[in-house]
Write a structure and sequence with these properties.
Layout: E1 3-10, H1 15-27, E2 30-37, H2 44-55, E3 59-64, H3 67-70, H4 100-114, E4 117-121, H5 137-151, E5 156-158, H6 166-175, H7 179-185, H8 202-218
Parallel strand pairs: 1-2, 1-4, 2-3, 4-5
Helix pairs in contact: 1-6, 6-8
């Protein structure tokens, strides 16, 4: 690896990855963004990601990996499945796409290697998450070792949001000066509605609760949402 001051962000155009994009811009001299089309119903996120990357003056690429969405049935890629409104008590939510982060980060590592990049940034979090096993710290650490062994490289997987909750993620966005951009121009909603989203899907609920908590703690802000 040669370019130690560059980073690649796995970038969906949602709240978490956009926060990570601007975190990376603060921490590294050169930032690249890589998005994935994996058969997601809310694929508009990639269009928004492209526009955010343009505004951030970050080199952007979208890669078609639609085979991921065809490997198993889940509510994000299959129109025939009604999305869980809440996480089941004894299982993963049906929005879990098996292998998604495993594939994303593995592909990102190959992409980074070709560009001489050793730092890869992802927005996964174990603190405020939907029960997905591929968002856990143990998985990231394990995969980091595996990628280094597989390609005889020294990749570093950065997870700036791993141990902070959604309210703290909003606080970080504010600290980075992009709270309004992230609130209004990102797409977190599983139903494909930008900004505050539909307000009903699991992703919107988590995002909204965190924002209300952050703005409430900060004080002096109207926490009303129009749905």
């Amino acid at each position: 690896m040669s370019n130690k001051k560059s980073a690649l962000v796995v970038f969906s155009g949602g709240q978490d990855s956009t926060t990570c994009l601007f975190w990376a811009k603060r921490e590294f001299e050169k930032v690249y963004a890589l998005s994935f089309l994996y058969g997601q119903k809310h694929r508009k996120e990639v269009d928004l990601a492209r526009e955010i990357a343009r505004k951030a003056e970050v080199e952007f690429e979208a890669m078609d990996v639609s085979f991921i969405g065809k490997l198993g049935r889940n509510a994000l890629t299959d129109d025939g499945i009604v999305m869980d409104s809440d996480k089941p008590a004894d299982s993963f939510p049906n929005t879990f796409v098996p292998g998604r982060n495993l594939f994303f980060l593995s592909i990102a590592a190959v992409y980074a290697r070709e560009k001489g990049i050793s730092h890869i940034v992802t927005g996964v979090s174990q603190t405020d998450f939907s029960g997905y096993p591929d968002c856990r710290d143990a998985f990231i650490k394990s995969l980091n070792v595996t990628l280094n062994l597989a390609m005889d490289e020294q990749f570093v997987l950065h997870t700036p949001l791993m141990w902070i909750d959604k309210a703290e993620t909003w606080a970080l966005a504010d600290e980075l000066g992009v709270l309004d951009l992230i609130r209004n121009e990102t797409l977190t909603c599983y139903n494909g509605i930008p900004g505050d989203g539909c307000g009903h899907c699991p992703a919107c609920k988590l995002r909204r609760e965190g924002l209300e908590r952050y703005l409430g703690e900060k004080g002096g802000f109207n926490t009303e949402f129009s749905l």
